[in-house]
Every structure is written in C-alpha cells, then in structure tokens.
C-alpha cells in the first residue's frame, strides 16, 4: 500500500493537482532511469521529473509505459515533468523541440513543462511558446526553474499567465527565503531540486541528532523538513530500498524547535547558479558547459518495446 505522502497532492494556481513528492532522475542513464521509474511507480510514486538536458527522456518514456502496463494504471494516474533545454530556447525552437521531447517520452502531453534556466534574451520568447503549448493542451501546467525575483518580475510585466511552479535548489543550506515569499505572493509553488543538500547537509550533526531522536535517517529528516516547508520534493535515487525509504516520512513530524534548528542552517549556498554557465558569461570558453548528457543506451531505449 502506498505511503500517504505519495498520495498527497497540492493544487496549483490553475487548479491542476500535483503530487507533493516524486522521483528525480538527474545523472541517470536511460537504463537506470527506466528502472528507477518502474520501481518508483510500483511503490506508489506518481510524480516523475526529467529534462532533455539529462539525456534520459527515452529511458523515462519506456519506464513509464512499462510501469503503466505492469501496474494496470492509466496515463492520467501519473504526473510527468520535463524541461526546455537552454540550447532550445526561443519561440519556434521551443515548439519544435518539445514535439521531439514528447516522442522520446512516448507521451501525447506532459503534466508540467518548465523552462530549465532563464537564458538572457530568450526566456520571455520561450515563455510565450509555453503559453501556446498550454493553450493547445500539450501541457497541463507550465512553470520555470532557477528563476529569481527579477526573472519572475519580467514575466509579471507580460501581464499574462504566470508560472504555476518554480523548481529551485532547495534544502537546509539553500532555503530561498526572499524568493519563497515572492512566489507565495504570486501563487507559484516551490519545487526542490537537490532537496537533500549533498554531503554537508546529510552529515550535519544537528540534523543527525534530530534524526536519531525520531529513529529516522538524516535523508528522511531533511525530506521531512522540505515537506513541512511546503516544498514539492523530487529526490533522485537508483536503488529500490532508497526510493522506498525516501518516501517513508509520513509517520513522524518535526517540532517547531527542530524546524527552527534546521532553518538556522540556511547559507543560501547554491551549488550552481546561472552566472556560472558559459551562456551567461558570453563565452563558450568560460563557465559551466551546458550540454545534453549523452548515453550509449539512448538508441536502445528509443526502440525498446514494452512487454505485455
């Protein structure tokens, strides 16, 4: 039987219900993504998050279709998110490349489509394309990722549909307090990438002491913190036992004092930000390269047939 946390949803500003807890597949090849998706759905997960940049949409698409068959589910039982790659941004390019993403995912629509990063000079045109896809019914909700207050203000000036979701780095070390308040005022849901905060947060003695008190792991304690903060959470794992354990956070609650202790850890310590990218610095020779991950098994999963 699925955990309550996996059955819980939040209503986005356009009325669409989105699960509050799901699976991320960043840095997974297609085989790993397909297996993780199937395991997660078998164990009650209904929210699956990927992106073109991850290079595993083909594996995710296969995993979804196989899991639907194996678990006797319908497409509408799942909530699938993907993202527009930075190199595809712009109005016409977004529309064309999104059709290719749908093919890789083996879907006729996605539940949530995000702009992956606010590429200067392009993200407003990209947003216009997302609005078109939304109106056409190819996506049920639209949003952004890694957008700060200024980026959101730019969208506000368009006087059109605002994002339903902003997916940000969020964990005990990066709590986005000012942005969170701005988003709440605009009716934009916060979704966390890197919800566990890496080794520094997982090994923090304060969190470990709280975890020990509740008989939980530090990962479960952090995920419970994210949940109580009202953040949609998508931890990544390729192991079934961890996928199950990550969602086992509905049988305890953090006290106000424990929440305050974890809130006090906030450093706004981003692991990466848009100024780190080569496209922001204006040169391909500096900054973080922005490329679609390539995996040897992509063609295999594009052709792989679902077994009935």
From TrEMBL:
InterPro entries: AKR, Aldo/ket_reductase_CS, NAD(P)_OxRdtase_dom_sf, NADP_OxRdtase_dom. Keywords: NADP, Oxidoreductase. The keyword Nucleotidyltransferase does not apply. Gene3D superfamilies: NADP-dependent oxidoreductase domain (3.20.20.100). Residues 24-266 form the NADP-dependent oxidoreductase domain. Belongs to the aldo/keto reductase family. PANTHER family: 2,5-DIKETO-D-GLUCONIC ACID REDUCTASE (PTHR43827), NADP-DEPENDENT OXIDOREDUCTASE DOMAIN-CONTAINING PROTEIN (PTHR43827:SF3). This is Aldo/keto reductase. It comes from Fructobacillus papyrifericola.
């Amino acid at each position: 039987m699925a955990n309550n946390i996996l059955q819980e949803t939040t209503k986005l500003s356009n009325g669409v219900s989105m699960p509050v807890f799901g699976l991320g597949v960043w840095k997974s090849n297609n085989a790993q993504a397909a297996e993780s998706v199937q395991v997660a759905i078998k164990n009650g997960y209904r929210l699956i998050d990927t992106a073109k940049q991850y290079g595993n949409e083909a594996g995710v698409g296969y995993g979804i279709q196989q899991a639907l068959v194996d678990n006797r589910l319908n497409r509408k039982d799942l909530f699938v998110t993907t993202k527009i790659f930075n190199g595809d941004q712009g109005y016409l390019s977004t529309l064309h490349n999104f059709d290719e993403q749908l093919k890789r995912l083996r879907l006729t629509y996605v539940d949530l489509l995000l702009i992956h990063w606010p590429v200067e000079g392009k993200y407003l045109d990209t947003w216009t394309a997302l609005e078109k896809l939304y109106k056409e019914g190819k996506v049920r909700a639209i949003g952004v990722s890694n957008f700060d207050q200024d980026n959101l203000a730019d969208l506000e000036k368009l006087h059109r549909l605002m994002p339903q979701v902003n997916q940000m780095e969020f964990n005990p070390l990066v709590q986005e307090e000012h942005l969170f308040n701005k988003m709440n005022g605009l009716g934009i849901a916060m979704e966390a990438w890197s919800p566990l905060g890496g080794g520094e947060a997982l090994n923090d003695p304060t969190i470990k002491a709280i975890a020990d008190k509740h008989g939980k792991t530090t990962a479960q304690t952090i995920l419970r913190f994210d949940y109580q903060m009202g953040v949609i959470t998508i931890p990544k794992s390729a192991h079934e036992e961890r996928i199950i354990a990550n969602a086992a956070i509905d049988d305890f609650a953090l006290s106000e004092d424990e929440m305050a202790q974890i809130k006090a850890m906030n450093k706004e310590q981003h692991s990466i930000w848009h100024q780190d990218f080569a496209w922001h610095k204006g040169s391909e020779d500096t900054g973080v390269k922005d490329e679609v991950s390539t995996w040897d098994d992509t063609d295999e999963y594009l052709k792989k047939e679902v077994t009935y």
